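Work Package 3 (structural annotation) set out to generate three-dimensional models for the target panel prioritized at the project kickoff. During this period the team completed the workflow that converts sequence records into discrete structure tokens, so that structures can be stored uniformly alongside our sequence database. As a representative example, we reproduce one entry of 702 residues exactly as it appears in the project archive.
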Amino acid sequence: MSYKFKIVSTRVLRLILESDKKELTTCKTIENTGSTRDQYHTAVGTVQHAIHKSKDEHYKLGREEQDAKNSVESRKKQLNNLRASRTNQLKRFGESMPALLEAIEEAHRQGRFKKKPVGPLGACLRLKYPEYALAVESCLKSLPLSFCCDNYRDEQVLQTLMSRYFNSGKRPQINVCEFSNQVYNVKDRAAYHRDFQTVLDVLEIDNPVVANCLVDMRGIEKVLLISNNSKAREVMQQQRAPLNCREAFTAAGDQVFANRYYSSEMDRARYLGSDVEAEISQLELEVNNKMAQVSHFQQQLHSVEEEIKINETHMKTKQMQIRKIQGSVTKIKLEITDLENVDEPQSVDISTLEEEMQDICQRIESHKEKLEQARKKMDVHRKILDEAEQKYKEMKEKINVIAEDADPIKDELSKIDAEVGKCKHHKRHYEEKKREHMDGIDKLKENLKNKETILEENTAKAKQIFAERIDVTRTPKSIDMEINRLRERINREQERHGNKEEITRQYYDVLERYKNVKSQIKNLKRFMQLLDKIMEERHKAYKIFRRYISLRCKYYFDSMLSQRGYHGKMSFDHKNATLSIAVQPGEGDKAALSDMRSLSGGERSFSTVCFILSLWDTMESPFRCLDEFDVYMDMVNRRISMDMMLKVADSQRYRQFIFLTPQSMSSLPSSRLIRILRMHDPERGQTTLPFRPLDQAEDSDE
């Protein structure tokens, strides 16, 4: 019994030792897995750094691409303005500039300006020396697009007009300065140098307002223009600056002060250039170069995006591996916790312990296999990590090499793009020449084909005379001489006897013309008879229509007179083209109608109004005007006449009625259809009209 207990105790002790050994092995596995996890974390951090760096480069390339696109759009807009300026020079200052100037002219005609604004100022300038165009524009900056106003009220009106054609941030500048007919005297304060001129000297300015504005705003009399940069530095910085000279500009547009130097951001003149075609060609070349740069940036962006995608995929793979390793570590730690929680084994049956031992051995073998698999996976992942690190190092080295070589390559690429643009220009030129030569060749081929056709026709005609071609030894010149001699003989014979075929042909031609003329005369007679019949029908219809119009006029005249209790009669004599009117006022004898001359002034005015309204009803016109119709009417006749005219006007709203009267219109009913315009009363006691003398008016217009 004691022996059995010892065996059991030994086995239990061995199990405990094996459990401790297993726990120790598991701890080592955890340590190895933790080391592998740290390596993966390091690799992920490296990949993340590479991704951030690639994204920074992607952002930088995107900014450069957007800048290039903006530059392309700006140059395309300038190119369109230059092309449009071929027909209208004002379009060089903007697409909306001609419309704005038309609006200013219209507002000036309407009297909205005290003095018409002047601008754009660049349209009022002319250069004596075209090579200084860029320098002058660099000096004036935005002033060539600006306008000048005499007062602030005119400025507000001009601002309102500009808001129709320009956005608030892109409106031309408005300079307010009192207009003067004399240019400032700047001789005492102008800059002077014996070799160079000022901006004011190289400009031809006809308008004194423009010259004074540039002197006030920019001080152009104190700015020198120097041809090259080195000379400008020598004059302004290496020796004492010229008298009254504040600054200088080079032909390239650089700005030079006594103690500093600023390079120009402009590469060409936009408003003062004289050779439009050369500027268009230069802009087209610049647009092509910028488009090539945009394409290059897009390719680089695509390459960087692919690199970012590859690195992100690699990072996701490493993160998944880290999560798997983390899961394995957590599982092993749980097993360690389970082992630590196992109590010391009690004296149990040997068979139970043996079963447990076998189970534990199986678990140990299973864990060994899993450990071996984990080691193999770790080796595979380590190889992948090494390969990824190697690729990252290679990629980083390539990126560094590319970054070092980028600037000279960009410069070389710009030069190549410029050369490609020139080559494309030459290619288009020579393709045009080739097209012209090909057109000439096609014309010559067509001419040759026509000659061959003529030759074939002449050969066919010759075969009609003689079927076989005769070989001759005579020269073409001698054959031509014989042909001419035979033709002369034939002509002499025809002159003596006449040509039968020609006479026969002439006879048939004359006969055909005779038949055609006879047929045309017959058709014309029928047409004349038809026209006579049509004219008779039209004349009958005209008489009927004239009679109906006369009756309608009489009816309306009598009905309108009846509203006042008058009676009237109108007599139309269409034969003698006369019209007579007789009116009987009041309830008198209708037969005792009197002439218009026997009526009073008010009765005659009322009758005239009735007559005019009856005539208006028989004619078509969109406008009806009547002047001083109620001068001699009393209040009753005037009220009745006004009611009649307003009633007629209300029934004919598609026409416009205009009534002129010196009487008060306050008694008229209020309506949205009636508009009363009252002129100001004239000044009493005025002996002379306020007209200006002719010479003063001319001075004002100037």
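Residues 486-675 form a domain with the Rossmann fold fold (CATH 3.40.50.300).
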